[in-house]
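haha ok so turns out i had the wrong file open the whole time. this is the CORRECT one, sorry everyone. sequence first:
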Amino acid sequence: MPTPSIDVAQQLAQMRRDYGVGLRQELAELSTWAQTAASRCDSASEWQAVRDRVHKIAGGSSTFGFIEVGQSCRVCERELDGILGGRAPAVYDGIIERLAALPELLAGAEVGPDGEYEVVESLGGAAGDVEEPLIYVLEDEPETGAHLSQILESFDYRVRLFDDSRALRATCRTQRPDALILDLHFTGADDIGGLEVGESIQAGMDKPLPMFASEQSTDFETQLRAVRAGVVGFLAQPLDPIRVTALLESHMRAHRAAPLRVLMVDDDKAMLDYHRLVLESAGFTVKTLSEPDDTLAVMEHFNPDVLVLDVRMPRCSGPELAQMVRYQPRWLQVPIMYLSAIEDANAQLEAMTKAGDDFLIKPITPNAFVASVQARARRARELSAALSRDSLTGLLKHADIKERMATALAQARRRDEPIAVVMLDIDFFKRVNDTYGHLVGDEVIRALANLLRRRLRVSDLLGRYGGEEFVVALPDCGEAKAVEIIDELRESFSQFQFSAGSESFTSSFSAGVKMPGADEDIQAVIAAADERLYAAKRAGRNCVVGHG
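then structure:
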């Protein structure tokens, strides 16, 4: 597996050194207590405190590579669990002996950067604005290549056109594209066909590269070979701009996806810092809490894709906190993962039956931790998208976009930042449906949705409000700038050529832009933007109206 950057590896090594310093002091205290006071101790509460300490050390020391210390503490924990739970006689001699010997186990372990810290590759999808996807096109027909490049650039894809397979292969080795479009019937100077070029490029990649073929083939063997080469779609000829971008967008949405969000709650700050660094180095956005009190409040504004909880915490156990989270209907679908040093299968099962979805045992390798959290978070996000997004456009549905916009409005007011709300409506859409049919009408709707998604920021909110009507929220954007942005989109959309059989036509939209008033809720702002939308309709359509 790939290793992290030198900076991350150095941070992890420094964490281990820092943890080792604190661990040495902790073990010395336990050893001294074992040699001086333990034999006279018959207080269950005092032994419970010792049990809590060795539980915490067992997870942390093993994670940072102090394996023998972790193993010895686990034995102490299991024996104390039996005694305190009434399942074993109150005989502490073996436990006292192990506690007294703990510093000797640490003496043989260097408090330094031994061991390797593996972290999976970045998940993709960066916070804020990201560079637009880079597409390489292999095409030996200059006219077709230029036409395809023009289509892609009109949707803000970055495009590099190649008519030489060797130059393409060399460029892929130095700069990986986000996708590759191959002429299926390309024949270069070296007599290598398009699919062979793709296979050669794919063989040199550390992970599969999405590839598209610019011509369809009905031959079974060719299609099978295309599948094995990593071709995920075919661009039908003649090239239709709307269908081309719809196909690309369906496979490239992950490029603009916001990072997966993880909220971790653990009373061990060293463990929080360690696992946060591991996740952040893999591309997650992470928040951590060492006290459970603020969990629900943080979830409200952070909106995590997954919640990771320690099981045994002093004031509130992980399963207790999980059940409090499940009291809230909004969080019934968020995955809850327990991360604990508990090895007892019965204890794990009990925790899982109390609102949990997965149980990870400390120590866990960075690869396994990232892969487990990633799988849960992605599935949760996919499920949420399936429930909250419109099937035709992939944009948020009516109720969901209103809820997100209400949250964005409240956040903008707390930060004293502007936010613009926009209502858009496709002009004469009924005429499109009546003239060309509903399938063509759907293409017009999908084209506008793709344009909005491609040209607006990741932080902007987009939704299909109903039928041919869309709503947009632009955080940290004043009204004049919002009008300018939407008007540029209007101009671009009006230039799209749609086809229906042998006929072609253009479409347009009208829009109204509104900034929230001091006392307006989101419903009132949407209604005011809608009024300005209808003012744009009355003004002749194909325009944007801002200031009333």
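The chain is about 50% helix and 15% strand.
again sry for the mixup
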